[in-house]
Write a structure and sequence with these properties.
Strand content: 15-25%
Number of domains: 4
Largest sheet: 5 strands, antiparallel
CATH class of the largest domain: Mainly Alpha
Helix content: 40-55%
Radius of gyration: 40 Å
Distance between the termini: 23 Å
CATH superfamily of the largest domain: f41 fragment of flagellin, N-terminal domain
Low-confidence stretches: none
Structural class: alpha+beta
Mean pLDDT: 86
Number of strands: 20
C-alpha cells in the first residue's frame, strides 16, 4: 500500500499534537492537583461531584440555621431567666403580705412594688431579638405580643405558630417559643367559685372560699361532670354536698364533710380536686348547732368570660361594654373556641366567625340587633351605640382554665391595695386572694420552667445535630477530594510516560522524514 507524503505528514502531525496535548493536560493536572475539571474528564465522577456539591451547600445552610437558632435560644433563655427571677420576687412579696402583723399601709407598699414588677414583666414579655422582632409573638414578629386592656386585664396578640428551620436532612427545629405556650397556658388554680344562696342576707358568720384546684386530674374528670354543687350545713359540724342531679356526694369530701367549728385547722374541705377554706365566725353566745344549719352555697367552675376589642379600622367608635352567656346550650354547641370575630353586615345585622377572619371564612351564626344587644351563639354583647356595616370586634374567650402571669400579679396588686380596716371578714377575703395569687404564681413559674427546659432541650439537640453535620461536612470533603483531586505519584508517572511518547514521536517523524526520495538524489 502506498502512503503519500501528505498522508505521512498529516498522520505524524496529528500524533504529535495528540501527544503534546496529553502532556500539557497532565502538566496542568500536576500543577493544580485537580483531576476532574469538566464532565469529559470523568462523567461518573463529575455527576457524583455535583451531588456532593449540593449536599455541601445544604450543610452550609444547616450551619447558618444552627447559628441563627442558637443565638435566638440564647436570647430567649436569658429573658426567661429574668422573668423567673421577677416572679420569684413577686411570690416572696405575696407570702410576706400574709403576715398577721402587716397593716393596710404595709400591704399597700407591697402592692406598689408589685406594680413595678407588673410593668417589668410586661416589658420582658414584650422583648425583641437582635433583628427587632418580638421574641414571644409567634410568627407575628412585628406585633407586640402582650397589651393591657381597658379593664386592667391582659391580652395575647401573637399566635401559636413556631418558626422552624431545617438543621439536618430530616430534622427541623423551632427558633422561638410562643407567648401562648410560655405564659398563657399556666394552670389557673382559682377557677372555681362559691355563691351563698341562703340566708338571703349574709351575716358573715360563715365564709366559704372560692377554692383552689389541688388536682387538675380530679377537677377535670370528676368535679366538672357534677357541677353545680350545693353545699349545705345540715348541723353545727356537718356539711352535705349534692351534685347537679341531686345525688349526695358528701362521702367524697375530706372527713366525710364533717368539720370542727371551734378549730381553724379543722375547717378545710377537699372535694373532687378542689380545696375549700371554711371560716366560721361565731359571735358571743352563738350555738353552732342552731346558727349554722340551713346555710347553703353553690359551688361551680367560673363561667367563661369574654374580652371584646374594637377593630381600629371600624367606621364607628362603638364599643362592646358588656357580654354574658345567656344560652349555655347554644354557647357550648357553636361558639368558636379560643377567639371569635363579631362582624356587622349592616347597622342591625351581624355575623359571628371563628378567628382569624379570612376570605374563605364562613359564619357560625348570624342575627339582628335587639335594641343595643347582639346575641350570637348563646352569648349576648351589649353595645354603647349604633354600629355600622363593616364594624368588627375581636372577642377573646377566657375559660379560666389558664391564667396569664400578668393577670395574676395585677389581681394580687388589687387585693393588697384594698384596705381591710381590721375587719375579720375582709381579712379572710384577703387571705383567700393571697392563696389564689400564690398558687397561680407557682403555676406560672412551673409553666415558665417547662418552657425553659424546652429551650435547653433544643439547645442540646442542636449541639448533637451540629456535631453530626460537622462529621458529614468532613466526609463530604474527603469524598469530593478522592474523586476530584489527583494522585501526585500517578500523575508524575503518567507525565513521564507521555513525555517519553512525545519525544519518541518527534524522533520517529525525523527518521521517517529522511526516507524521502529527495534524500536519495
Amino acid at each position: 500500500m502506498r502512503i503519500s507524503t501528505n498522508q505521512f505528514y498529516d498522520t505524524s502531525a496529528a500524533n504529535y499534537q495528540k501527544n503534546f496535548a496529553k502532556v500539557l493536560k497532565t502538566m496542568e493536572e500536576s500543577s493544580s492537583q485537580v483531576r476532574v475539571n469538566t464532565a469529559a474528564d470523568d462523567p461518573v465522577g463529575a455527576s457524583r461531584l455535583l451531588q456532593l456539591g449540593t449536599q455541601a451547600a445544604l450543610l452550609d445552610q444547616y450551619e447558618t440555621n444552627t447559628k441563627t437558632i442558637r443565638a435566638t435560644l440564647g436570647t430567649t433563655e436569658a429573658v426567661m431567666e429574668s422573668i423567673g427571677n421577677v416572679l420569684q420576687r413577686a411570690r416572696e412579696l405575696s407570702v410576706s403580705a400574709g403576715n398577721a402583723g402587716y397593716t393596710d399601709a404595709d400591704r399597700q407598699a407591697t402592692a406598689s412594688e408589685l406594680g413595678q414588677i407588673e410593668e417589668q414583666l410586661l416589658s420582658l414579655m414584650n422583648s425583641k431579638d437582635e433583628n427587632g422582632k418580638y421574641i414571644f409573638a409567634g410568627s407575628k414578629g412585628d406585633t407586640i405580643p402582650f397589651t393591657r386592656n381597658d379593664d386592667g386585664t391582659y391580652s395575647y396578640n401573637g399566635d401559636q405558630v413556631t418558626l422552624d428551620l431545617p438543621i439536618g436532612d430530616t430534622m427541623s427545629m423551632a427558633t422561638n417559643s410562643t407567648g401562648w405556650e410560655v405564659f398563657q397556658q399556666a394552670v389557673n388554680t382559682s377557677r372555681s367559685q362559691v355563691t351563698m344562696t341562703a340566708p338571703a342576707v349574709n351575716d358573715g358568720r360563715v365564709v366559704l372560699s372560692d377554692g383552689q384546684v389541688s388536682s387538675s386530674v380530679s377537677y377535670n374528670s370528676k368535679f366538672r361532670s357534677g357541677e353545680p354543687y350545693t353545699v349545705e350545713f345540715v348541723s353545727g359540724t356537718q356539711l352535705k354536698i349534692t351534685d347537679s342531679l341531686g345525688n349526695d356526694v358528701t362521702a367524697e369530701a375530706s372527713q366525710g364533710g364533717s368539720f370542727d367549728p371551734a378549730s381553724k385547722s379543722g375547717q378545710a374541705v377537699n372535694f373532687r380536686g378542689v380545696e375549700l377554706t371554711l371560716n366560721i365566725n361565731l359571735q358571743t353566745g352563738d350555738d353552732p348547732a342552731t346558727v349554722l344549719p340551713g346555710r347553703t352555697f353553690t359551688l361551680a367552675a367560673k363561667p367563661d368570660t369574654f374580652v371584646p376589642t374594637r377593630s381600629p379600622g371600624n367606621p364607628t367608635a362603638v364599643q362592646i361594654t358588656g357580654s354574658e352567656i345567656t344560652d349555655p346550650v347554644a354557647y357550648h354547641a357553636s361558639f368558636p373556641t379560643g377567639s371569635a370575630v363579631l362582624k356587622f353586615t349592616s347597622a342591625t345585622d351581624f355575623e359571628l366567625y371563628a378567628a382569624p377572619l379570612t376570605a374563605d371564612s364562613r359564619p357560625v351564626s348570624s342575627g339582628t340587633l335587639a335594641g343595643n344587644v347582639a346575641t350570637a351563639s348563646g352569648v349576648s354583647f351589649t353595645l354603647n351605640g349604633a354600629p355600622a356595616a363593616d364594624d368588627q370586634f375581636s372577642v377573646a374567650i377566657n375559660t379560666h382554665e389558664t391564667q396569664n402571669i400578668l393577670d395574676t400579679v395585677s389581681q394580687l396588686k388589687k387585693a393588697l391595695n384594698t384596705p381591710t380596716n381590721g375587719d375579720p371578714l375582709e381579712v379572710q377575703k384577703l387571705q383567700a386572694s393571697l392563696a389564689s395569687g400564690i398558687g397561680n404564681l407557682a403555676s406560672g413559674t412551673d409553666q415558665l420552667s417547662s418552657a425553659r427546659s424546652s429551650v435547653g432541650g433544643r439547645g442540646q439537640s442542636l449541639d448533637t445535630q451540629s456535631g453530626t453535620n460537622q462529621s458529614l461536612v468532613l466526609a463530604n470533603s474527603q469524598t469530593q477530594s478522592s474523586i476530584r483531586d489527583s494522585d501526585s505519584a500517578e500523575v508524575l508517572i503518567r507525565l513521564t510516560m507521555q513525555s517519553t511518547m512525545l519525544q519518541a514521536s518527534q524522533l520517529a517523524f525525523s527518521k521517517i522524514a529522511q526516507l524521502g526520495l529527495f534524500n536519495k538524489i
